Amino acid sequence: MDRAEPSYVRRIVDDELDELLTALPAISLEGPRAVGKTSTALQRGGTITRLDDPATLELVTAQPARVIDGTRPVIIDEWQRYQPAWDLVRRACDAPATPPGSFILTGSASPPTRQTHSGAGRIVPIRLRPLTLPERGVESPTVSLTALLEGTRPELHGRTDVDLTTYTEEIVAGGFPGLRLPAGRARRAALDGYLDRIIDADLPEVGLSVRRPETLRRWLRAFAAAISTTTSYDRIRDAATAGEDDKPARTTTVPYREALERLWILDPLPAWSPSSNQFTRLTSGPKHHLADPALAARLLGLEAEALLHGDGPSALPRDGTYLGALFESLAVLCTRVFAQAAESRVSHLRTKGGEREIDCVVVRADQRVVALEVKLSATVTDRDVRHLRWLAGTLGPDLLDAAVLTTGTDAYRRTDGIGVIPLALLGP
What we know:
alpha/beta; 2 domains; six-stranded mixed sheet; 14% strand
């Protein structure tokens, strides 16, 4: 049995996990490598079987029943290394005597082949993303996304000293708990090693044989350059092979994307598809995001000082600075974690001509929404809220609230009712 780590800082997902384990027999914690799945699972005690250990895997392969034996909850770490573990847990959950909170599976990859049974109704997935700003201890939030989703238009208050320099430092530091090192060579080496591991070891694990690793690295760099945009995958491929006549075919790059999504390294933000017919010309393509904007910055070799001076990729066109795109990606990461805690999901809105765009549409189960724009600015003008006003006129009461996430100091409501919220002050 592994004991809980004494330095563990409780995360937003812990409340969700605790609640579900009181009623459900099995949970699957899903997310990219190093995001903290094992540490989070270990807070519940129990017995852990680490299937990324070759000796343990050999024993389990010889005696499969070992994987579900032990003190509850039984934690099966990196379960995808021995895929029969999924069905063993599912069948154990079918037994009437199996109490809630019996199993926690953690996995850093979605296997390329389907399990015998999906596990629906028995093994419930929970997504774990990198640390948000409040989980990193950057600031104590004063504005609750859950409260905004209640539709009461609560008063907004709070003041923060977090400034653009701090946001930029947090972007390049990232939210992977084990990789949050002081700025400098050690942090760069840790992030480089993480990216190398994806290409050299993790992708083969999900069934992708990388014959030309440098081609994939260039594709990843081009993808990083396209962060927070809806740039087509063909344009990303062209940017990755600029100046080359022999460009890889779609049959080469599509498997890259699919495999990286199975590793949860790519984390695309889907386009909003409202059930009503108020909208007839919305794009259906996702906005591109990586699991953490720190990976994008590192892929392009950009440190905080360079970003603050306006450095960034030029191969792909974008509105605004690259730092603005990374700040938007950080805001999307935080909003997704907060929305998950509120049993909501996040999408983006963009009309086909690009005339209207809203960065985050947080959707409740009843399809009513909170709309959030993200601005790399300390101030908000009427121009900054024009798309939110348009959405309010289109949706009417189905728009529960609207706000702009900024780099400013104070949370407040404008005279038109639209909120202004420093990103550091937003929480679950």
